[in-house]
Design brief:
homodimer; 739 residues; mainly alpha
């Protein structure tokens, strides 16, 4: 088989994944929707979620339209004929980039909306299935989640492929990747606001309704008397499902485009050397992604097991099938597409073997993060237990212990990323691919292949992630509709597994963002040099190619400092937004308790819709400031300090963002599970009595859990997106930073 | 006056400051020591402090001896004759560097020990003075603090000057700065362990005795029935006084040496161009420091005022006098020492004017940080009030609001540092001093002058800092000895001012560390190039000078990632150490309450000494792990990834460390003052009633205060030292990283 044949797989694989998502959606939708009470609650959740998503995406769409116009104008003004050596420049290039931005934004929104639609339909069906069978409930939730997973990855693949081909991918494969960067920017623009808005909504509703219900009124979580409870259930969907979907849509899109830009360097070498199918080096990321989708489709059928089995094992089985098939797909792709016309790498080994190794490093990194996240956020290991123990002496020591654990998690994260980058770069280097100046370009390409390898399992990981809010909702529906104990026991088990899968996805998102960082920097440098090269060719004086991002240059250092600061300041705004929005909810629920006294004896139904509406408005208002800060900072720094400095902002900002996200995600997850650890009766006093609910230790653990909420579900995940947004924004607006 | 004459000021100014410190010490010591009860408590505190310092400094001395031997061996083995172009290399250079390390360590220990000795003598005298007069109490506390301030700065100045002259500063001024880097490393080595051990001790004692006393037994803070209370009072001295003294000793030493290394570049230019007194460019930092000492001596006499005046105004008066005199000293020094033989800078302005401007930028940065810190940590402004408001809904929202405020403080910090660096670099550039290759070396030297300008006020700032633990102790002694209400009212007012001055010093320490960072990087690059230059001259193949620290190089990026991670991991260890040590205290105090029931009715005196002893042992055990991690990480990265990568670790680690320290210091300070804001009765409920002590809002604020303790007094200040240690360790061990 040759590379041209293998490239034919992209379109069918993407379409197959969409068809499979439709099949799964139909499978889920035709299932039993449970009792009348269940349907009632589910209907209310559905309405709230749709109302939020409609308003949120209208706002985002409006912002995206403005963004597209601005981008088109900037590109039109700065990438002029004088610096162009293609027949696309100025206004035409501006309009194309603006269009690519809009298509990226639209694809991201579409996958978010459809995925969430199925998710809020799958929740009640999971609750209903839980009345009969654990395995069936797992399957409904996982298939519902997989709709989202497949749509995200398939729309990203088809979108990038479509726009690539439209913009001349077959005729000018060496130029088209640069023309489609707008797609990635559009995707990250939407992702930023989707994650921020969803994250603020979900945690404000969670914190607000818990504080006013559990703490003030003394009624249980998810109790129907709490007017905030529906907003809380809606929040699970809009944050974890739509938000994370947009996050990973952006990852797969931006990192594909970045890898294709890096592929251009190898394409040029391959073409000059006369190797067969040089464009294979550019198409490679898309083919790998296609194999990842096929692997995931097969794996979905392996999510099965016995009624008495740990549901996590069923999900893990599918994950391992995806990973194993991905290794096979990776071997085929590298073997077929990475032909070097007989030229061998180090030790006389063919080049593709080294890149295959790099891809396996990426898959292994994904597995490593799954285990690291489990170690730090599961009650079976030291960190969570340490926090639970510290709860004995009250909330202060609980917070201190949780902070120490959160900070500690950066160790394993940084070391793993460092090893993955080092090894994949080393392996790529060994392939021995040198450009005309004798520079080995394989190293950076090795990190790109590792990123592609890692992202092969995205659809499966995302299905597991959406499993989280579906089962969380199923538990809420069961509680709310006072379902039979057996069903509630099953939904509780699934909810616990869902917490783990949500944490894993965040670890995966962080790992992919950091592994991809290096490839996106390199793409930025390639793009800058493309422009500088044109200026040099046009005879402009005093222009040199960007060969180094020199931290010892004062402007680069200042920009790096601002990049690291941006990460904190952005998180500060996101965390504060949750607090402000939660206050609005507390005020409203208190008012309902006060003015509708019948609520407490169930004689009056609280006005859920009003709380949903207030939360929606507040969350959407609060998402704007952090979003604009994230977009504006790199632009201002780039314009003031230039293109080398903005690369410093990008790189140091990425390091700082990845680490702070790790701290926030894992710290929050550990606090959450320390509370669960105590609730499960694992903490004993000196006399051997269980220190469970209603003890001071539990109250202290609840404080930690509440503090962790905006960390792990608002600021942390938003930072993943911020890091990638920095990369796409600088990639698209590079011409603005060059004078 | 010529530069040679001005250089003569160094030795007399240093000696004068020592004599003045002796005068102040005698003045403090001969004052009234109050009632018998006061003397009793003070005696117990004194014993505990001496016991801790003796044990701590024995441990540190042992570690320093090992460090000196290792350094001597490494330098002997790596800086061999083959790479040397002076007559000092190999074993001789190794022994000299080891000796310089020991002298630096010894000077740092001496200033810490003596300063703390006076501090624990001044506390009771301040309490006694408070029985008579506010002004007298302020003066006793400030003079006691000034002993520490003068000794730290004078010993640093005399130490650097002495070793510089001993190692040939007069005969080979261009080589001597490189020979004395060991002094700075010795100072930062001691500072790291002094700050860690002291910081762990003070906050473990504070948190531990508060939790077991206030929370469990329900007795007030500083109540004599609490067996941990003496340990708490001892802790104020060993953490804030000895720890911060070592921190700023290290700043003044390392940054002087770094500036002298940068001066070598200008010295070479000046010598080749035949400008008068070229060595003035190297001596400059020492002369500036001497003027700073003289300014501070004068300023001490301006700390006076009326009995009804806010004590903060008296301290501020002195600070402004120091700053104003420093500007004058700076003008004289730059005018006399920065002669360029008639060559003019931009706009035909003499070079010294531009450098004078850069120095003023440094002084202005110091003032800016004083105000920024006040804004974020004082109850008069939005941030602290926001945290106090959030306390209404419990500890969780208090922590969330405090975290948001802590993260937010990075904005003003980063922007101020960015502006200071940019402007001082720009001004230095304008001086138009170019080396033989036409490279403008003035910019980096401008940042060095700014740092020197900023550090002119160190002695005064440090006196204000030590004012903190002295007044804190005076308050504790008054409470403990049940002194009359008037005295307690005065000590309470002083204590509140002391909290502010402690916070200011941390802001100052952070600002100086970050402003100095750039000069220390540049010194590292100069040192590396000195070695590489020798290798090139010796005909070694494939060696190039280090002209760029390229973040786009995968090894540099990995090292940067590890540098940023180190900051979190180190903080995690430091924070956890406080928790572990506090647990040991809680167990012991509980045991005493249980086994000695007479304690509660005052009939039995608790065994304070035992708690002091337990805290001492635990704190010293806990300081080793974070200390070794900090020392080992840059060495391992440097050996594995090389000299350019370790520069990446240094720079990104500095950015990350400065920002995290800002978050921890200001967040902790804001939590502390939010509690005080509520205690002062500023928080009202909906009906207008005061929500003060014993309300839920106050309890929530106490949680925030306790969480902030290890942040602001252990991890944050230790990070200042870590950042500078990274710079000195890489500077000394550079030969190890070059192959």
């Amino acid at each position: 088989m040759d590379a041209k044949t293998l490239e034919l797989i992209i379109l069918p694989a993407g379409l197959l994944a969409v068809l499979f998502a439709i099949y799964l959606a139909r499978d889920v939708l035709r299932r039993d929707t449970g009792t009348k009470e269940m349907q009632d609650v589910a209907g209310t959740i559905f309405e709230g979620a749709v109302a939020f998503i409609r308003r949120q995406y209208s706002t985002i769409a409006a912002l995206a339209l403005v963004g597209a116009v601005v981008i088109a104008a900037v590109i039109s003004a700065f990438e002029t004929k004088e610096v162009a050596d293609t027949n696309i420049f100025g206004v035409e290039l501006g309009i194309r980039t603006g269009l690519a931005f809009l298509v990226g934004a639209a694809c991201s929104m579409a996958s978010g909306i459809i995925g969430m639609y199925i998710s809020v339909k799958a929740n009640v069906r999971t609750a209903a299935a839980a009345r009969r069978s654990l395995v069936e409930a797992v399957q409904v939730a996982m298939r519902g989640g997989a709709v989202s997973g497949f749509l995200v990855v398939a729309l990203s693949l088809l979108g990038v492929y479509g726009i690539f081909v439209t913009f001349g991918g077959f005729t000018h494969p060496e130029q088209a990747p640069f023309l489609i960067v707008g797609f990635g920017f559009g995707a990250s623009f939407v992702a930023l606001f989707a994650q921020l808005g969803g994250g603020i909504y979900t945690k404000a509703a969670d914190v607000g309704s818990d504080l006013v219900g559990k703490v003030e009124a003394g009624i249980p979580e998810d109790d129907p008397r709490n007017a905030g409870v529906i907003a809380d259930l809606v929040g699970d969907n809009v944050g974890d499902c739509a938000g994370r979907g947009a996050d990973l849509f952006e990852s797969t899109a931006a990192e594909n485009i970045g890898a294709m830009i890096l592929g251009v360097a190898v394409y040029t070498i391959a073409k000059n050397a006369g190797w067969a199918n040089p464009e294979a080096w550019i198409f490679f990321p898309l083919v790998v992604r296609a194999f990842g989708l096929i692997s995931t489709i097969v794996a979905i059928f392996f999510v099965r097991g016995r009624e008495d089995e740990n549901p996590m094992h069923m999900l893990n089985r599918g994950y391992w099938v995806t990973t194993a098939l991905s290794v096979v797909g990776l071997a085929i792709t590298t073997n077929v597409m990475m032909q070097t016309g007989g030229q061998l790498g180090a030790n006389g080994t063919p080049a593709w073997i080294w890149f295959f190794g790099a891809g396996v490093v990426g898959l292994a990194t994904s597995v490593a993060f799954v285990y690291i996240t489990q170690y730090y956020t599961s009650g079976s290991y030291r960190p969570v237990r340490e926090i639970a123990e510290a709860s004995r002496t009250g909330p202060a020591t609980n917070i201190i212990a949780g902070t120490a654990v959160g900070y500690e998690t950066t160790l394993a994260t940084a070391i793993t990323i460092a090893i993955a980058l080092f090894v994949s770069h080393f392996l790529g280097d060994q392939a021995g691919i040198k450009n005309a100046d004798g520079v080995n370009v394989g190293g950076v390409f090795g990190t790109a292949v590792a990123t592609m390898g890692m992202l092969m399992t995205t659809a499966y990981i995302l299905a597991m992630d959406t499993f989280g809010p579906i089962t969380d909702n199923a538990g809420g529906i069961a509680e709310f509709s006072r379902a039979e104990a057996g069903a509630r026991e099953i939904t509780d088990r699934l909810d616990a597994v869902g917490n783990t899968t949500k944490a894993l996805t965040k670890g995966y998102a962080i790992a992919s963002a950091s592994l991809a960082a290096f490839l996106l920097f390199s793409a930025y440098i390639d793009k800058v040099n493309l422009i500088l090269g044109r200026q040099i060719a046009a005879g402009k004086e005093g222009v040199h190619l960007l060969t180094s991002v020199n931290l010892a240059n004062v402007n680069v250092f200042i920009a790096g400092l601002i990049g690291a600061m941006l990460v904190y300041f952005f998180s500060s705004l996101a965390i504060r937004a949750v607090g402000t929005t939660a206050q609005a909810i507390i005020v409203e629920v208190r008012r309902q308790f006060r003015e509708m006294p019948g609520i407490m004896d169930y004689s009056v139904r609280p006005d859920y819709a009003r709380v949903v509406d207030i939360t929606t408005k507040a969350a959407l208002r609060q998402m704007v400031a952090p979003g604009l800060v994230a977009v504006a900072t790199p632009i201002i720094v780039g314009v003031l300090l230039g293109y080398e400095a903005v690369a410093g902002l990008l790189m140091v900002g990425t390091i700082a963002g990845v680490l702070l996200a790790t701290v926030l995600n894992n710290g929050g997850g550990a606090w959450d599970n320390a509370k669960k650890y105590i609730e499960s009766g694992h903490l004993l006093d000196a006399a051997g009595n269980v220190l469970g609910k209603k003890t001071d230790a539990h109250a202290a653990a609840v404080v930690g859990d509440t503090v962790g909420d905006p960390f792990k579900d608002t600021a942390g995940p938003s930072l993943h997106v911020l890091v990638k947004l920095l990369a796409t924004i600088t990639l698209v607006l590079a011409p603005l930073f060059i004078r």
